[in-house]
Design a protein that fits this description.
Layout lengths: L12 H16 L6 E3 L1 H9 L4 E4 L3 H7 L6 E2 L3 E2 L4 E2 L3 H9 L6 E4 L5 H11 L5 E4 L30
Parallel strand pairs: 1-7, 2-3, 2-6, 6-7
Antiparallel strand pairs: 4-5
Length: 161
């Protein structure tokens, strides 16, 4: 069930188990992409050099809210109305190259990145995962993000221009 990475030596047993668990959960939920990983799992894979993190938020979100250092940027949608980027898959292919590479997609809350993961999988990316919770997390009872989950809430590295 587990797909083999091009560079399996870069994966620890813990990393491989996280990927296998995510794949099983995705299969059980009939997700059209490889699965979902927590922000901490995603960061561990990036730090190990085993995965590429791609931020699919708009350029404006990255600039005004913050971004993960070293992440690539391929917008799923742009502008304040978040108009879908019709070139998303082509741009992702150009940035990633090898469709067998382990790719982790990150957005604000994990919803747009799930849609992006689906599109990437349909285009032939075989190891594309959604980063659950996203960069800012879900909206809480006070209509705010970042107070209960998400990349920043988890204390993972981020920066702002």
């Amino acid at each position: 069930m587990s797909a083999t990475l091009e560079h399996p030596a870069t994966l620890s047993v813990e990393h491989q188990q996280a990927l296998d668990t995510a794949r099983r959960a995705a299969a059980d939920a009939a997700l059209p992409y490889a699965g979902g990983l927590s922000p901490s799992q995603a960061w561990a894979l990036v730090q190990a050099g085993a995965a590429t993190l791609v931020d699919v938020r708009s350029a404006e979100e990255r600039k005004f809210v913050g971004q993960v250092p070293g992440s690539l940027h391929v917008a799923w949608a742009s502008g304040t109305s978040l108009t879908r980027n019709p070139r998303f898959v082509r741009e992702l292919e150009a940035r990633i190259g090898d469709k067998a590479q382990l790719v982790l997609l990150l957005c604000r809350s994990g919803k747009r990145s799930a849609l992006a993961a689906e599109a990437a999988s349909k285009a032939g990316f075989s190891q594309v995962f959604n980063v659950l919770e996203g960069f800012e997390g879900e909206i809480d009872a006070h209509k705010q993000r970042g107070h209960g989950d998400g990349w920043r809430f988890r204390g993972l590295p981020w920066e702002q221009d």
